[in-house]
Specification:
Shape: globular
Structural class: mainly alpha
Distance between the termini: 39 Å
Oligomer: single chain
Helix content: over 70%
Strand order of the largest sheet: 1-2
Number of domains: 1
Number of strands: 2
CATH topology: Four Helix Bundle (Hemerythrin (Met), subunit A)
CATH class: Mainly Alpha
Radius of gyration: 17 Å
Strand content: under 5%
CATH superfamily: CDP-alcohol phosphotransferase transmembrane (TM) domain
CATH architecture: Up-down Bundle
Order of helices and strands: HHHHHEEH
Length: 185
């Protein structure tokens, strides 16, 4: 298991998840806990950019990193969504759509890996991740910004959910092309 600088950032992201959850769910911190949780969440999310940057710039992309990076992303996002549902800040159906898409794509990635096929991330997937992060931060810090009488977080999580579904469909479409070249048009 090669742990280079890029992979270290993915490991840090995973290790920050319980810290984030502690600050978000521990009631004795009150509002300060939300701010601390948002800070830890954003720090963890930033490690995703750093691990990708260092993996590419140092030409140190590893099989372990290709597995760990998306796993760390999914764990962070899923942990945040589950906590927000528990705090009654997010509807369970939205969390389920997002988490189900992540599991479905992970399963497809594993199937592709078994065929020795790598399906590259698309720009739509990057928009999905960014929109999820922004929406989650606004849900962690609820009630600060309103748009047309509704919390901005409502619009942002609905947008993130829509992009999540569309990017999942796109990923499955592209996977079909990579896994069965006879389907290319």
């Amino acid at each position: 298991m090669p742990v280079n600088l890029a992979n270290s950032f993915s490991v840090i992201r995973v290790l920050l998840i319980p810290v984030f959850m502690f600050f978000l769910l521990e009631e004795r911190f009150l509002l300060l806990g939300d701010w601390l949780a948002a800070g830890v969440f954003m720090l963890a999310a930033a490690t995703d950019t750093l691990d990708g940057y260092f993996a590419r710039s140092r030409d140190s992309v590893t099989v372990f990193g290709q597995f760990l990076d998306p796993l760390a992303d999914k764990l962070l996002i899923s942990a945040a969504l589950v906590c927000l549902v528990a705090l009654d800040r997010l509807s369970p159906w939205i969390a389920m759509i997002i988490i189900a898409r992540e599991f479905a794509v992970s399963g497809l990635r594993m199937a592709a890996a078994a065929e020795k096929v790598v399906i590259p991330a698309s720009s739509l997937g990057k928009v999905k991740t960014f929109s999820q992060i922004v929406a989650i931060v606004t849900l962690i810090l609820p009630g600060f910004v309103y748009f047309r009488g509704q919390p901005l977080s409502l619009y942002l999580i609905l947008f993130a959910t829509l992009v999540t579904v569309i990017s999942g469909i796109d990923y499955f479409r592209r996977a079909r092309l990579y896994l069965d070249p006879g389907n290319q048009q």
